[in-house]
Design goal:
Number of helices: 10
Helix content: 25-40%
Strand order of the largest sheet: 11-10-9-8-7-6-13-12
Distance between the termini: 17 Å
Number of strands: 13
Bound molecules: 6-hydroxymethylpterin-diphosphate
Shape: globular
Strand content: 15-25%
Length: about 325
């Protein structure tokens, strides 16, 4: 049997003396301890790989730390028409309660416009009316809130209400959104989508789906940098279900590790999506176990952050998968 070395414990890279602190490594047979310099000759590739995973993404007032475990983003849709939780959280007090109940979530992603295939767009005023009190209420209770929007005016008001992260499914289609994020110094998720929610599922075709998404990431990373967003604040998401057939989504999950070469944390949102229904033949309310399998697979293949509805269950799935890496 092959002996695979792995890192058991690494020094916090943000500490000024981290180079002098010990790493704990299992070399496949026994535990070894030493500084990076001492272990470099035998385990250089392992340390490099681990460091690449150990990314720190600053947000106003704190930092997300990736590497030690997969982080979890809880979904809170304040919409009448989201595909799985539409209409559940339209009352702000109930939405805030639902957000607070997602105790295991590292981030709460608040959205006021559905992006399900064929969804109608809403005005910035309506979107803001839905999300603003919820963002404000959760932020006031110390939660790290991400605003899921493609509109600059919504993002700006959400940052003023206390949101400290931007989840943009259009990956800065509107440059003004990037400018708002740059000004607020918030982390930004750039998600891949082919087309728009209205037309994305009409005829999604790719040559090599993973290669095309990686090219898109490179282009949008450049755009983000040119708008003043710092590279350390960017996260990448291949956009499961956004202009993809079931086979494309499965291929993305099979080859997720390829996105790690871009050097940024990888976000994955599979929760209750239709490719799971396609494989299992289950309606949206019966896709939790299927989602759990996709979360575990994504974590094992290098996902840094998973975006989910069933926070407690998926946090468990991620934790187990983390331990089997
Ligand atoms: N998926 C949805 C919405 N936003 N953001 C990121 N970064 N990644 C995703 O995969 C993603 C996303 C769609 O899911 P949901 O929010 O549950 O539904 P709806 O768009 O209908 O509100």
């Amino acid at each position: 049997m092959a002996h695979v070395p792995r890192v058991l414990k690494a020094p916090d890279p943000s500490l000024p003396n981290s180079a002098k602190l010990p790493w704990v490594i299992h070399d496949g047979r026994r535990v070894r301890t030493g500084t990076a310099a001492q272990l470099r000759t035998s385990f250089g590739a392992l340390l490099r790989d681990y460091r690449r995973r150990a990314l720190t993404v600053p947000y106003p007032g704190g930092a997300l730390k990736f590497g030690a475990r997969t982080l979890v983003m809880g979904i809170l849709n304040i919409t009448p028409d989201s595909f799985s939780d539409g209409g559940l959280h339209l009352d702000p007090a109930r939405a805030i309660k639902a957000g607070l109940a997602m105790e295991e979530a590292d981030i709460l992603d608040v959205g006021g416009e559905s992006t399900r295939p064929g969804a109608e767009s809403v005005s910035a005023e309506e979107e803001l009316r839905r999300v603003e009190p919820v963002v404000r209420g959760l932020a006031a209770r110390g939660k790290l809130v991400s605003i899921d929007t493609t509109k600059p005016a919504v993002a700006r008001a959400a940052f003023e209400a206390g949101a400290r992260m931007l989840n943009d499914v259009s990956a800065l289609a509107d440059p003004d959104l990037g400018r708002e994020a740059a000004r607020a110094k918030v982390p930004v998720i750039l998600m891949h989508m082919k087309g728009t929610p209205r037309n994305m599922q009409e005829r999604p075709d790719y040559g090599d789906v993973v290669a095309e998404i990686a090219d898109f990431f490179r282009e949008r990373l450049d755009r983000a940098l040119s708008l003043g967003i710092s590279r350390v604040r960017i996260l990448l998401d291949p956009g499961i279900g956004f202009g993809k057939r079931p086979e494309h989504n499965l291929e993305i999950l099979r080859r997720l590790e390829e996105f790690r070469s871009l050097g940024r944390p990888v976000v994955v949102g599979t929760s209750r999506k239709s490719f799971i229904g396609h494989v299992l033949g289950r309606p949206v309310e019966a896709r939790r176990d299927g989602t759990s399998a996709t979360v575990a697979a994504a974590v094992l293949r290098g996902a840094d952050l998973v975006r989910v509805h069933d926070v407690r269950e998926m946090a468990d799935a991620a934790r187990m998968a983390d331990r089997m890496k």
